Amino acid sequence: MQNNTAASPQNRKLVTTWLFSLAFMIWVMVGIGGYTRDTGSGLSIMNWDPIIGALPPLTTAAWNKLFALYQSIPQYQILHQGMDLDGFKALFWPEYIHRLWGRLMGLVLLLPLIGFALTGRIERRLIPWLALLFALGGLQGAIGWFMVSSGFFPNSTAVEPWRLSLHFFAAMFLLGAVLWTALTVQSPAPVPYPGQRGLKRLAQLAFVLLLLAMFGGTFVSGIHGITAFDPANNIGTGQPPAGWPFSGIFSDTATIIFDHQFLAVLATLAVLAVSVQALRNGAPDNVRDAAMLIGLLVLLQFAFGVSALVSQMIDLGVVHQMNAVLLLAVLLRLLHTLRGATA
Amino acid sequence: MKPDKALGAWVLLLAAMVFGMTVGGGHARTIGAGFTIQVWRPFTGFIPPMNAGDWGYLFGLYQKTAVYQANPIDLAQYKALFWPMFLDRCWGRLMALVFLIPFAWFVAKRRLTKKHAAWMLAIFAAGAGQGAFGWYMVQTGMQPGVLSPPPLWAGPHFCTAMIIFALLVWTGLTFRAPEPARVEGVAFLRPWASASVVLVYCTMGFGAMVATTNAITVFNTFPTMDGHFVPPTLFELHPWAQNFIANKATVQFFHRLLATITALTVLTTAVLGLRAKLPPGLRDNFLLLAGLVALQYLLGMTTIVLGAPELGYVHELNGVLLFATMLAARHGLRGATAARPQPALAAAE
Question: Does the beta carbon of A317 lie under 8 angstroms from any beta carbon of chain B?
């Protein structure tokens, strides 16, 4: 009988695997979204049909209809005047796949949830929580549309950076919630770790600083910072622009990039401090390994960030973004492990 | 042999002075002062020029160099280049004193065995040879068309300095702790650490070639080299070995490639070491290793992107510190054993 309850190891493992897969799908979604953003394809689909939008255009007529719609927006008229249908298709597919992946995630959350609920394989208290996350996932789609629609404003060739930031952080919230839920199903009771409270506080500080650095990063992405590096004009060289910090936090390119760099340095130092602290103070093996992994990821992240800035390679920007999310996820895992830390 | 802290401190001080020499030599190279003193007086050269006559003589010699003829300067500018080079050479003489005086004392007090005294004298001879090597390098400035120390001289000059440095670091650490401390269960780390030492050394060698061929002036991009991961001009010179001396693309490409392999190897070594339960001193050594190698890679990236020789100089010095830390880590693993004794067996005994 034990095997049929939600608390059985098999069922817990099943639910954990499912939720981890979902978290992985969100991570992939960040990559697709980043690619969509960086290629400037986000505005290629002018309508929002949550259900029937799952079908791509199947006929030439359907393509032409979509293309005609695209030709009516300012981005086409300002940036892509005279683009042919193939050029439009190159813009269309990333955005389409981004939206399709979102729908797929909805199904991957909803269908197993119903199945697990009906067969009693999942704790009852998780059902409303995961149903809420499903609803928030739908809301995230709506936020996405709210963001995209700002790109159709007169004379606008891209979405408003603050809406992009909102969309990204809604994604981070969903990822964090799914991950934390999965980890809690995996190990429901906090393991006591005496003497690790200092490490936990430090990890919390690193988490906040990392979120701030990522917040700055969304604005760099939002203003197409990937092409902004210009040492001659002191953009991206790591020196504060004239008048900083009041030189235009959300508007001036040099300021946005400098702020991101500044916050990234703080976050990097804090994350490295977590690694060093865990390694020097005899943290338990699993804590030590997570702490070491975030140390390596943050070094990689710094190198990716500098490389993306100076090379102006879009792909590196996407890798930088995905690595940031990976870093955030491992840091969350560390914080989850340290729930039971005591003084 | 018993641990001898004073003996170890003396040899490590000499190693630190070699590091100081790379500070001075790197600075002289960065400001282009290498050819300013065209005389070599090993014993009396510590006396600086005293009067207008001395200055006139030295400046007159410098005026015969190709670099002066390509870029004439006045006496005041000459003096600004002269002093760093002069100090660099005096530093070498000071090192000889810091070697010889304590050496005589340690021998007199019988704190150095015959074998160790011979070994230290061999290192001293290598140091003297390094000075002579430096002089022959400086002399090339009299040849037509040679505007800076040629890569085939300056690159090996740095490499031999680093060999002397490594010998001093290793010997000093061994005098401090002649008997390897047992470190249980980490014998697998030794080949990793040895490979890291060799890789760091080779990367530094190519770094010296980057500096001396002035390869910093090209491909100021990262991670690609002007859009190519492998530059198309990699082996355009014939015979092919010429590329490693005269082709900036080749020199820089191999420095980048080796640096990446080295960084990954050193980081792997550090992670393996940190996951094994090392004693606190050795653990901190490994932690420092990870920090320095990451810093070194970032400094290298930044140097090449900005094309800034001053930053390259910092990159060079950090490379030497990384090398020393790597050597110390490997030294700490001398007493590594294959496996932890099994508790059951230990109890049975």
Answer: no
What's the gap in Å between the CA of B177 and the closest CA on chain A? Answer: 23
Contacts of B298 in chain A (CB under 8 A): 302-303, 306
Instruction: Compute and round to an integer the Cα radius of gyration of chain B.
Output: 23
DSSP readout, B217-271? GS---SSSBTTBSS-TTTT-SSSGGGHHHH-HHHHHHHHHHHHHHHHHHHHHHHH
Q: Is B301 exposed, middle or buried (0-12, 13-18, 19+ CB in 10 A)?
A: buried
Q: What does the CA dihedral A60, A61, A66, A70 come to, rounded to 10 degrees?
A: 90
Nearest beta carbon to residue B222 from set A280, A292, A307: A307
**Residue B306: its chain A contacts at CB < 8 A?**
231
* Inter-chain residue contact B267 with A296, CB threshold 8 Å: yes
Q: Which of A272, A299, A310 sits opposite B222 (nearest CB)?
A: A310
Residue of A279, A301, A304, A312 to mutate when probing chain B, most B C-beta within 10 A: A279
Q: pTM here?
A: 0.88
Q: Whole-angstrom Cα distance, residue A340 to residue A329?
A: 19
List the beta bridge partners of residue B183.
B336
CA atoms within 13 A on the CB side of B51: 1
Instruction: List the one residue out of A143, A129, A201 whose CA is nearest residue A172.
Output: A143
**ipTM for the assembly:** 0.83
Which helix (H) or strand (E) segment holds residue A305: the answer is helix A285-311
In tens digits, what is the pLDDT along chain A, a chain of 343 residues? 445 587 889 999 999 999 999 999 999 999 999 988 878 888 888 888 888 888 888 899 989 988 988 888 888 888 888 888 889 999 999 999 999 999 999 999 999 999 999 999 999 999 999 999 999 999 999 999 999 999 888 888 889 999 999 999 999 999 999 999 999 999 999 999 999 999 999 999 999 999 999 999 999 998 888 889 988 888 888 889 988 888 888 888 999 999 999 999 999 999 999 999 999 988 899 999 999 999 999 999 999 999 999 999 988 999 999 999 999 999 999 999 999 999 8
Q: Determine, for residues B305 and A310 on separate chains, whether the beta-carbon distance falls below 8 Å.
A: yes
Over the stretch B80-98, which tens digit does the pLDDT of each residue have?
Answer: 999 999 999 999 999 999 9
Measured torsion, CA atoms of residues B276, B277, B279, B280, in degrees rounded to the nearest 10: 100
Take residue A35 and report the two structure tokens written for it: 């690619």
Which chain A residue's Cα is nearest to B305? A310
- Interchain CB contact of B223 with A (< 8 Å): yes
Q: Is residue B264 less than 8 Å (CB to CB) from chain A?
A: no
- Chain A CB within 8 Å of residue B302 CB: yes
Contacts of A185 (CB under 8 A, 6+ apart): A12, A15, A16, A19, A123, A126
Contact A151/B at CB under 8 A: no
Q: Which residues of chain B make contact with A280, given a CB cutoff of 8 A?
A: 280, 283-284, 287
Q: State how far the Cα of A120 lies from the Cα of A14, in Å rounded to an integer.
A: 12
- CA of B71, closest CA in chain A: separation in Å? 28
Taking CA–CA distances from A309, the nearest residue in chain B reads B222
